[in-house]
Write a structure and sequence with these properties.
Blueprint lengths: L4 H9 L9 E3 L7 E2 L5 E11 L10 H18 L3 E11 L4 H17 L3 E9 L3 E11 L14 E5 L4 H11 L6 H11 L5 H6 L6 E5 L3 H11 L3 E5 L7 H7 L1 H10 L5 E6 L4 H11 L3 E8 L4 E5 L2 E3 L12
Parallel strand pairs: 4-5, 9-12
Antiparallel strand pairs: 1-2, 3-6, 4-6, 7-10, 7-11, 8-10, 9-11, 12-13
Helix pairs in contact: 2-3, 4-5, 8-9
Bound molecules: magnesium ion (MG).
Amino acid sequence: MALGEFELIDRFFRPAGAERPDVVLGIGDDGALLRPPPGFDLVAVTDMLNEGVHFPVGCAPESIGHRALAVNLSDVAAMGGTPAWALLALALPSSDEAWLAGFGAGFARLARAHDVALVGGDTTRGPLSVTVQVLGFVPQGQGLRRSGGQPGDVLFVSGWPGEAAAGLALELRGQGRDTAMETRLRQRFLFPTPRLELGRALLGVASACLDVSDGLLGDLGKLAAASGCGALLELEDLPLSAELLAHAGGARATELALAGGDDYELCFAVPPGRLAAWEALRSASGFVAQRIGRLQPGHGVELRRAGVPERFAHRGFDHFPH
Ligand SMILES: [Mg+2]
């Protein structure tokens, strides 16, 4: 690369993120020295994004920087954690300075918004690929897991699943004159919002939680399986946004919400005895989350609409057909 590794990190990534007093030694040595607070467990997550697999070829660098961090913050949120530190490994076909500036800006804006310090990085030449690792904290012994649910626990999903998948389809269609509605859907793919405040609020309230990255239906199945039970999903309660319904129509909107992916919403279970606490929390904090069903004995996800069983042909979505 034209720029040396340290120069590149210094120029584009050292300012990328928050300053934190618990960073004893940041970027520039062989490793970072970090001081976790006493009384907390460390939450460690990592996620890799490859061009043409996790984002379209030619995707805006600001979006790639944002998403590379956001998908990790979403995993921290699913554990009920508070993020603190991030490490970044970047493979680049060339040191394109405009691209790096955009990527750094997208990454930095989200990092600062959540008080995350970038404490290490590596860059190499290769096909465009971004791997981020985030470390955070959760009060000792309290981290949320997928496995704590019981039959009878009520299931919720945050936000508006399906919008990001509709936005990705617009991205793949290319740039055009978007309506305001299309712009909103596109932004939901390009700049997902990790639900960190909600995840923290669910500590001591949710019995099981995960983030929806691969489609609600499949991810809910993972939560149910980890909890050793099945799930009932009531389709009439699926939160479909007015924008998604207007854009895609009811049937397609339902498909996108069930199987579209890239939502980065939280799906969680609340035991009946904690529902009042959750409702109080929700109305006090204004969290957007919809009741969508409940855990039940058995296995797999059962779909019903107004009590009538329904089948969903999981066709899957090949986002990047070859
Ligand atoms: Mg996850």
